[in-house]
From TrEMBL:
SMART domains the UniProt entry points to: PGAM
Alphabetized PANTHER family for the sequence: BROAD-SPECIFICITY PHOSPHATASE YOR283W-RELATED, PHOSPHATASE SPAC5H10.03-RELATED
GO cellular component terms given for this protein: cytoplasm
Record organism: Cadophora malorum
Name used for this protein in its record: Phosphoglycerate mutase-like protein
Domain of life: Eukaryota
InterPro entries associated with the record: His_Pase_superF_clade-1, His_PPase_superfam, PGM_Phosphatase
GO molecular function, one term: phosphatase activity
Amino acid sequence: MAKVTIHCVRHAQGFHNLSLANHTIPDPLLTPHGKSQCQTLSSTFPSPSKITHLVSSPLRRTLYTTLLSFPTAITRGIRITALSELQETSNLPCDTGSSVSSLEAEFSQGEFAGTVDLSHVSEDWNSKTGRWSPAAHHIERRARQARLFLRALADQSLALNPDQDVEIVVVTHGGYLHYFTDDWDGAGKFVGTGWANTEVRSYEFVEGDEAGAGLRETRESRVGRMGCEIQLGREEQRTLRDAMEKEWCESGYQGPREESAKM
């Protein structure tokens, strides 16, 4: 039976990663070092020929990370699906995306013309209000919606070709990835995240959990980066999550969780 694998990637180094002062840069681009990280990822990513889908946050650093890191998939005609729900958690200028019209203009010309599908990006996605706000419970809901989107994408592929493995690359952000994977182990390793720039971890869907859209890191991925396959329990994860949310709220990276929304 065909397998479904979700390869999660944190974007390459952006100019906002160089200093806290650079957090005031709106929707920053990749640094020269960040572009070099993409070249390295392009040469080290296992079996790029097996990639079936590319999905990205609509922020420019994630879109360019996807474009520069997976050129062979782009050459094969795989377009990047930009998804509003994958945006970073805070409302800082560096984590606030550009308007849809600006993105359309930027990715409709030059060498990357026609490579990005913006049809799943809401016009108000960069408002950072309502469902797009940095409040923890809204981030959690967006992460669930993104997983359900990927589950539906995988199901569509399997319906068309039941014998072909589905390998989806998701390029997003360090803070958001903890909500997306529900894995908080090592969350304080770097500024605001436990993920290094262009780090890749692979996941599989957990059947029977939230419409089959829960994620669990594959044994190969976890053993490869941790040396063991043992994962933290649910209560341990919640304790780490609560601690990180408190720290991020105090640092101004995100808003508080509504008491009624606590798990």
